[in-house]
Amino acid sequence: MRKPVVGVIGNAHRVENRFQVQMVGERNLRAVAEVSGGLPMMFAGAPDITDIGALLDVVDGIVLTGARANVHPTRFNVDPCERHEPYDIHRDEVALALSVACVARGVPLFGICRGLQEMNVAFGGSLHPEIREIPGRMNHRMPRLENGEIHPDPTVVFADRHDVELTPGGAFATLLGCEKIRVNSLHGQGILDPGKRVLVEGVAEDGTIEAIRIAEAPTFALGVQWHAEYDPQRNPVNRKLFEAFGEAMVTRQKAAA
């Protein structure tokens, strides 16, 4: 049996303020290859050159990665604000339609950070542009120095920062074999209202939604608010998630054989 092919969504970037490119963080690619056992294949977060039907004909699973850009507020009936830029409206269009299509076609889907947010919006949910502005919430953004610059040490940036309580007997608790985990935190936007088929399976100590699954999905359709791709080679929680994603793809391959 061949290696599962995993579609990993790209993000729009401008290099040297001149060249428009699509980029994927290497940690996402390595997590897919080294832990899920798949062959990562980046596809563009651009609807004019990405045919979702054709894409799903050739991949065995989809990863919606984290990204700097926020989901555009008009996707959940809120006016946009310059404070919450940048946006990536083309990725929005691809990712939201793709989330629904994956579930409908039984293609394993793993949403990470922005990917979780996209899955929620795709199924009718809403987001808050700055979770830390809600009374009682912590600052979920990445650590910065006193001068405002991002901390230069990635082990500090991606360090575990808060606990997540998992739903007893839920998909995450069953998969991970526990009801409390500790995760990193690198996001500003977060789930406000869950979508119609979005089941909340993990909540941070301040009430922020951190883990979801899509109800009645025929296969793996999970989203996490933390960056599970950072170190799944050594982190047991993230390793189990990527392994389960890989197993779901192999199961789908066998069923189609």
UniProtKB/TrEMBL annotation:
Pfam families: Peptidase_C26. It catalyses: 4-(gamma-L-glutamylamino)butanoate + H2O = 4-aminobutanoate + L-glutamate. GO terms for cellular component: cytosol. It comes from the Bacteria. One of its GO terms (biological process) is polyamine catabolic process. Keywords: Glutamine amidotransferase, Transferase. SUPFAM superfamilies: Class I glutamine amidotransferase-like. It is an enzyme of class 3 (hydrolase). Its EC number is 3.5.1.94. Pathway: Amine and polyamine degradation; putrescine degradation; 4-aminobutanoate from putrescine: step 4/4. GO terms for molecular function: gamma-glutamyl-gamma-aminobutyrate hydrolase activity; transferase activity. Involved in the breakdown of putrescine via hydrolysis of the gamma-glutamyl linkage of gamma-glutamyl-gamma-aminobutyrate. Belongs to the peptidase C26 family. PANTHER family: GLUTAMINE AMIDOTRANSFERASE PB2B2.05-RELATED. This is gamma-glutamyl-gamma-aminobutyrate hydrolase. It comes from Bradyrhizobium shewense.
